[in-house]
Design goal:
The protein is of the alpha/beta class. It is built from 13 helices and ten strands. The chain has two domains: about 230 residues, Amidase signature (AS) enzymes, CATH 3.90.1300; about 200 residues, Amidase signature (AS) enzymes (Alpha-Beta Complex), CATH 3.90.1300.10.
């Protein structure tokens, strides 16, 4: 396979095949990625730090290894970025906070270690909302990255690691390792956080409940990249235990014919903008055309109620971990984030136990309602990205994403097109806990049927 190593939107699968066949070299790809970062990041502001020297050395080593027949596997030589809540030994991990701007990572986190051991090449650390607690992707003190789909108006990039989204959309790298407390990166099992910045026990970097996972670039939409997502997910998880199920990539290519998929009811549709609903309905029509059975799904509670419940849990755990830092008015904390942590101040141990009991009951009720459905479909967000100046920091954009962290589900956000104003919209595909393969299967089928999505105009 012949590829252009300077094309930042080549899928992981295509890049891996090109390495295998000798049609591309990691050094050329990494040099092109670093050049693009140097060109675009002064405007987009996605990176906290770029590890150029180490990245080039790793690329040269990958060149030699692959060239001599010692290719480790499909992730060997693939560049990726680390959200700046992930520890990389010897590197500063700020957690997006000026209060931790000099905190050097004592060890590399386990998930990152596995990706590096699989031959992945770290480009650098990407910016994040302070302590990754917030869905807009803004950061008062460390800087809010630009959403590259609109280079005239400073729009929110979205997510606790908004820069990751910005960098991927801008074609800075092929993969970003993130995490989600209220988002859609939800693996089938939790990471071993020993040595990671996300360790709830000894490092004040993030809030919980949180699950690590690879982000999908908006610019790389095709079936091979969903396949690449599945491969990266498996590498990040490490070896499965005996009897742990089939590899995720094995589900791809099975199609959606005969699957019963749940769509929004009228109550939930009312929460969405007209543009989001139009894109959602178009995605449903495509899935129906592929043979899926689309039926209205009525959740036992509104997604807004689930989102509120998840927010209460995040605040309680966040305050228990980081309350002292946010209570100290002398520390340079983000004043949009401080109230989110302090909201957990009054949650007692008895309250917390009650919250967890409610969560288990909600999970059971939702699974009962989902009987007969293979997956549930929602928009990822209720509206497109607003301008930073218009954001209501007391609200969350995670109306449809927080609920599924709370419910312990597995989800994939798949870009499906652009609005009339040129902003991207995506579909959220949600499967039961432990069934990422179903979400990837549906995403692969839909992605293969979608027309190519335009790229942001950055050059």
């Amino acid at each position: 396979m012949t590829i252009d190593p300077t094309d930042p939107f080549v899928s992981i699968a295509a890049l891996a095949d090109a390495y295998r066949d000798g049609a591309a070299r990691p050094r050329d790809v990494v040099e092109a990625q670093l050049a693009r970062i140097a060109q675009l990041d002064p405007k987009i502001g996605a990176y906290q730090v770029v590890c150029a020297d180490e990245t080039l050395a790793a690329a040269e080593a990958a060149d030699r290894a692959i060239g001599s027949g010692h290719r480790i596997g499909p992730f060997h030589g693939i560049p990726f970025g680390l959200k700046d809540i992930r520890d990389l030994e010897g590197r500063v991990t700020t957690g997006g906070s000026m209060a931790m701007k000099d905190r050097v990572s004592p060890a590399t986190g386990s998930l990152t270690r596995r990706l590096i051991a699989s031959g992945g090449i770290v480009l650098g650390k990407t910016k994040t909302v302070e302590c990754a607690y917030g869905g807009w992707g803004t950061n008062q003190r460390m800087g809010t990255p630009w959403n590259p789909w609109d280079m005239e108006t400073h729009r929110v990039p979205g997510g606790g690691g908004g820069s990751g989204a910005g960098g991927l959309r801008g074609g800075h790298r092929h993969r970003r390792l993130g995490a989600a407390a209220g988002g859609v990166l939800r693996p089938h099992r939790a990471e071993d956080h020993r040595g990671a910045a996300a360790d709830r026990r000894d490092h004040p970097a993030v809030v919980y409940p949180r699950h690590p996972g690879p982000d999908r670039p908006v610019g790389a939409r095709r079936h091979p990249d969903v396949r690449g997502h599945g491969r990266a997910r498996e590498l990040g998880d490490g070896p499965r235990p005996r009897g742990g199920g089939r590899p995720l990539h094995a589900a791809l290519g099975q199609g959606v014919a005969g699957l019963r998929l749940g769509a929004l009811d009228e109550r939930e549709r009312a929460a969405c903008s007209a543009a989001v609903l139009a894109a959602f309905d178009a995605a449903l029509a495509r899935l129906s055309g592929l043979g899926a059975v689309i039926e209205v799904f009525n959740p036992p509670r509104s997604y807004g109620e689930f989102a509120v419940a998840n927010g209460r849990l995040i605040s309680a755990e966040g305050y228990a971990l980081h309350g002292a830092m946010y209570e100290d008015l002398g520390k340079p904390m983000d004043e949009d984030v401080r109230p989110r942590f302090l909201a957990g101040r009054g949650v007692s141990a008895a309250d917390y136990i009650h919250i967890q009991d409610e969560r288990r009951a909600a999970q059971a009720n939702y699974l009962r309602a989902m009987r007969g459905f293979d997956a549930v479909l929602t928009p990822t967000l209720t509206a497109t990205s607003p301008a930073v100046a218009e954001v209501d920091q007391t609200a969350t954009p995670a109306y449809f994403t927080r609920p599924f962290n709370y419910l312990g589900m597995r989800g994939l956000a798949l870009p499906t097109g652009l609005t009339a104003t040129g902003l991207p919209i995506s579909l959220q595909i949600v499967a039961r806990g432990g069934d990422e393969a179903m979400a990837l299967r549906i995403g692969a089928a839909l992605e293969a049927a979608l027309p190519g999505l335009a790229r942001p105009d950055l050059d």
